[in-house]
Amino acid sequence: MQSSHSASAPGGAKLAAHFASLDVQKHAARLGMWLFLATEILLFAGLFACYAAYRFLFPEAWAASSRSLDLLMGSINTIVLITSSFTAAMAVHYAKEGKNKLVGHMFFLTLLMAGAFLVIKYFEYKHKFHIGTLPGRYYFYDGIQVPGAPMFFTVYFASTALHAFHVIIGMTVLAIIMVRAYRKGDFGPNNYTAVELGSMYWHLVDLVWIFLFPMLYLV
Amino acid sequence: MSDLANKLLFLPERASTFADRIDFLHYFVVGTTMVASAGVGLAALFMFFRYRRRVENQTTEYVVPNLKTEFLFVSVPLVFFLAWFAIGFRDFTWFTTPPKDSMDVYVMGKQWMWKFSYPEGPNGVNVLHVPANRPVRLLITSRDVIHSFFVPSFRIKMDALPGRYTQAWFEATKPGTYQVLCTEYCGLSHSKMLAEVVVMAPEDYDTWIKEQRRGRLQDRQDALADNSLVPGTARMAEQGQKLAGTQGCLKCHSVDGSQHIGPTFLGMYDRMEHLQDGQNIRVDEAYITQSMMDPGAHIVAGYQNVMPTYQGKLQGPESAAIVEYIKSLRTANVREGASEGPAYDPIQ
Amino acid sequence: MTPSSSIAAPGAAPGHEAHHDEHGDHPSYLVDGTTVKSWLLTVDHKRIGIMYMFWVLLFFLVGGIFALMIRLELLTPGPTIMDAMTYNRTFTLHGVVMIFLFMIPAIPAIFGNFMLPLMLGAKDVAFPRLNLLSLYVYLAGAGFALWGMLNGGLDTGWTFYTPYSAHTTTTVAPVLFGAFIIGFSSILTGMNFIVTAHTMRAPGITWFKMPLFVWALYATSCIQVLATPVIGLLLLLVSAENLFNLGMFDVARGGDPVLFQHLFWFYSHPAVYIMVLPAFGVMSEVVSTFSRKNIFGYRAVAYSSVGIAFVGFFAWGHHMFVSGQSTFDAGIFGALSMLVGVFTAIKVFNWVGTVYKGAVEFTTPFAYFCGFLFFTVFGGMTGIAVATVSLDVAWHDTYFVVAHFHFIMVGATIMAFLAALHYWFPKMFGKTYHEGWGLVSAALIILGFNATFIPQFLLGNAGMPRRYYEYPERFQALNVASTAGASLLAFGFVIIALYLTWALIYGKRVDNPWGSKGYEWLTASPPPTHNFVGPQPTYPEEPHFYVDPKKAEVSDAV
User: Fold this and answer.
1) DSSP string, C334-393
2) Architecture of the structural domain at B236-328
3) Which carries the bigger pLDDT value, residue B264 or residue B230?
4) Is the complex ipTM more than 0.95?
5) Architecture of the domain spanning C3-198+210-244+255-522
6) Whole-model pTM?
7) A202 in contact with chain B, both atoms CB, cutoff 8 A
8) Which of A55, A57, A146, A152 has the highest number of chain B CBs within 10 A, making it the mutation to test binding with B?
């Protein structure tokens, strides 16, 4: 309430009362987002550390288990996600030009591909539940009997599930921005921070997958 | 002098060579700490009296340090700290490197007791007998959660980790009885996980262990031992031999030096092995244990990775017994130092 | 207990009415909106700070009660007032509450929130709504943790070491999840402060004209943002391990028990600096104000905060010297730990240098400063002692370590917390407390603290391990001394609670009783909602500039 008195600046962007200027406000938002992304990366870094430690302890299990993953599905997912990042970047481009409808369309495409990613992921998970390549004590797959294989799938499920959770959060954020672009259509050259930040978050989700994919599927 | 210091600092009696080694550094560090904190505290008090406020809203001079002062601020503590680190690290390295002639004892922590087994028997619970003036190496593991083996009078401590061995060594200097405490929180009766080290004069120890091994004196402690894990006073190596048969080790590993699916046990202990990945490794307790639990970790060159894991199939003392069995198969021609181990031809 | 308990209805306090009139259209933040809603939904950093203060002090009380229960239990070697299970839960909850609910948010979330914008000449923090969110996230996490505590509590120690934490039958998951959520609150606050320091500085306040408290908060925030997510992940994994046997740290399936410790200390060691750096910042302000002098070696103190934050990330292995990590690793971590000591020493020398040629007034905050100086040097150097690898073999996990970290966390941080509470009490509420009682309680607390923890150093030397419910009889004398000291300490806190509550209601109205030239004192006390009325103040050459303007600007270097 106290500092919710805000003034309208040209271009549709709102300047909150406690900022000196619109530029400072944008700078602050972007800096905040970068810090948040740093936090997110460190969240995954913990998992990467677990991955590295156990890969060092069980190289054979890692090789064998990695081969058991479905490389085709993984590759399709990678392509889907990278393309979705492209459309998200396009949305920022259009937002700068004030083409709100295109912003909405681009985010719609991104969401569509994110949905496809999750569907493919679902089939991968389903297959694993079926054959028994599951974490820890739930493991009952006979194909790989190397010590450490259950550990691979612990790491696999922990990291892909955490990533999928980020995909869902990202989708929610993008959906909200998409609705705003369609309904209000107030993005323009001076007011595209929301689009930019949402897109940045989406790039992070993509980036994490770009690390996870080779770590889990390729090596 | 140092007795007085021990009393003032409430340090327990010094009863190991390690304690003799580190106590001087202890006095140095703690003494400097007391002098420095008192000095800084007094300096602040002195300045309060010297520079107390005379008038309200008094103004002051603008004082900043020059380069020399700043250099002193950094270098004086740095020199002290690095000196402590250097001395401390030297002693720590000494502590983590057991002498070659040390006597081995296996230590297993479990909620909430300590088990000790000697390579050639006997086994004991909560009482560890060792000779004075002889280095003793403890090979420590745990059956459940993390414990830590701590003897205040020896100043030594080492964590007992499930699934792997850690080692610690000491050389007791005075016969007597010293308390062992668990220092890693391990559940309900953590504070009751006490044991003792009985240090005996070397000749007494020799008599004691002979009697133990003859099985004439059934130690009271052995009656307490969990018989499913350690069969009474049976020699560990003998037990290991039996286990090697029943667990199927001998199906692949020969004991007469002949080549088979796996490397022979004969002369394996302390041998340098060429590994598949081109590295060399010296076969010691840790390597043998690891090879049982995770056979694929280090494959000797020329052999296939076909051995199943014994993780979960062998209990701690059982794997220790097998290690002792392998150690008993040392050949006379084991060379010391950086020798090249035997090379293996690939199986046809 | 809490001086802030009556803040919920600040309008009821007499004296505020008069204040309201003084400022006309610009009432102080305390009375600008008196409904409950105006407090709960506020985005004003000052009100958020005050609300944090209420909750954080409440949890300090809870943690303090746990501490007294522990000390009572340890009065005799055998069972005294509770059984072993209760004791194990009590020390765990003492640790969890004190660290996650009190110590980490204490100075940054209360005084940081309140002072940071004032010190930067800003109207608010960069993201006021995130700031409010962080409060509610904190409360949500605290709610989870409390729920877990009431439903059995957990007995793992606050370090949650696996495999014990994965197998214990107590309710681990809710408390871990609560701590995970609180982590987010900590991250949000940290992000907010970093962005505020970058973007919200008033014209004229350059990086090297920021008050040192801001520097300390900045360094703290960097740690919060970078280290907290790692423990967040780890806590989730351990919860999953405990609930579903996920297997990440399951030794029977090849899991590595030491991996947990590495990840845990990667956060928890820097977390020590989250707790202590803001304390250093507070003390820089206090010593400058009460000696009426510029900080001796301002840049050295500012850089050393950043230095501690940086090196703090690479010293975690010194918690694991006897956990089977390699000798080489132990050497690296040992050497790096020494650097933290050097940075701290730089600060200590510069604080003493600040008093030199000053004009000292011995007030309650200055009394805490003197205590703090002694405790920081003693606690810090015993920290160097336990980081000395060979000595740590004997000291690891004994009461020596317990005494060492209490010297830093209580000796340094709580002294600074109390100093801040007294120093900024007039700033926050526009009222002052009774100086005599302040000095009495400071004396009690400093004495009681020494009496509590110096025996614990000696217990550690004698070999008493931590987390012991029962102990051999030879340790009893020192334990009794420690318990006696703890009661003295508790008594000191009760006095503080009483006279500060009194001051809150009947205290004498003041504006800047210390004559401080810190930037935060340039506005009214208590400040108006948007911190400044009329044009923004112009900022002098640097904060805490007490030189007589008539004298030459020549600075003499020592």
Assistant:
1) HHHHHHHHHHHHHHHHHHHHHHTT--B---HHHHHHHHHHHHHHHHHHHHHHHHSHHHHH
2) Orthogonal Bundle (1.10)
3) B264
4) no
5) Up-down Bundle (1.20)
6) 0.83
7) no
8) A146
